[in-house]
Design a protein that fits this description.
By secondary structure, this protein is α/β, with parallel strands linked by helices. Helices cover 51% and strands 12% of the residues. Helix 2 crosses helix 5, helix 9 packs across helix 10 and helix 10 crosses helix 11.
């Protein structure tokens, strides 16, 4: 009885949120036009994606930096791409943070690291986005602003919004290591076996200078490989299935989606 009451109350709250935060049809259609990989999904998927976007926008707080205005179309562009990976998993995977900070252009961050000899090195790193445990999540508008004429057919996939939210998924219940939380020990062991083999094959291709669908940045670490693989899985699923079928099937099982199907 208590669970049924909880479910009924949650459903009532959700219905109220959806009424208060509707997505206008022209704005929704504009978003699908700007990001064609979204429009390629089924009508049922798009209806669920739209529902999740309304709930996402009601939960998260957007902040523009240095006078940058986060308009409704920009906020929805983030929401639609962020909600796609959790279409079956649910928004609870993003419950650990609220703030989303957006800069107009690329951010330069000051970094440092200590080498094996104990010497500290300082350097600058240009960022298009950054996910931090507990938030906020940072994005750069120029990195995901729609520009249909900018991509070439043989270019590696790049989608900073999906990339950073993949890191959030990776960190859910732990830290970013390329191994998102699994259902059980068997699933965890299977993930490790497949992802390690797929990453090694990918790194060998990158080291050999061969072209790859997945961004070569994935060779940096397992967690970055996971993030760029998720980009390819959602943006160019058929191409990923052709290039790394075992990796595609692993991601399809985890996300409970088959975008190439």
């Amino acid at each position: 009885m208590w669970r049924r009451l909880q479910h009924a109350w949650a459903a009532k709250l959700e219905a109220r949120t959806l009424r208060r935060h509707p997505i206008p049809e022209p704005l929704w259609q504009l978003t699908l036009l700007r990001y064609p990989f979204l429009a390629q999904r089924s009508a049922a998927d798009l209806a669920e994606l739209r529902r999740l976007c309304s709930l996402f926008l009601a939960e998260k707080e957007f902040h523009g930096v240095a006078g940058f205005e986060v308009s409704d179309d920009i906020a929805l562009a983030v929401a639609a791409q962020a909600c796609l990976p959790v279409l079956r998993l649910g928004l609870s995977w993003y419950a650990g943070f609220v703030g989303i900070v957006i800069h107009a252009d690329e951010v330069v961050a000051q970094r440092e690291f200590m080498d094996e000899d104990g010497v500290v090195h300082e350097f600058e790193e240009e960022l298009a986005g950054e996910a931090m445990e507990g938030g906020p999540l940072m994005l750069v508008w120029s990195a995901f602003e729609p520009d249909p004429g900018s991509a070439s057919a043989d270019a590696a996939i790049f989608n900073v919004v999906i990339h950073e939210f993949a890191h959030i998924i990776d960190m859910h219940g732990g830290w970013a290591d390329g191994v998102p939380r699994q259902a059980d020990k068997a699933a965890h062991a299977h993930w490790l076996a497949v992802i390690e083999a797929e990453w090694q094959w990918f790194c060998e291709r990158v080291d050999a200078g061969a072209a790859t669908l997945i961004d070569p940045y994935g060779a940096e670490s397992p967690e970055e490989f996971f993030a760029v693989a998720v980009e390819a899985f959602f943006v160019a699923p058929r191409a990923l299935l052709g290039e790394q079928p075992a990796l595609y099937l692993l991601l399809a099982g985890f996300f409970q989606q088959d975008p190439a199907g």
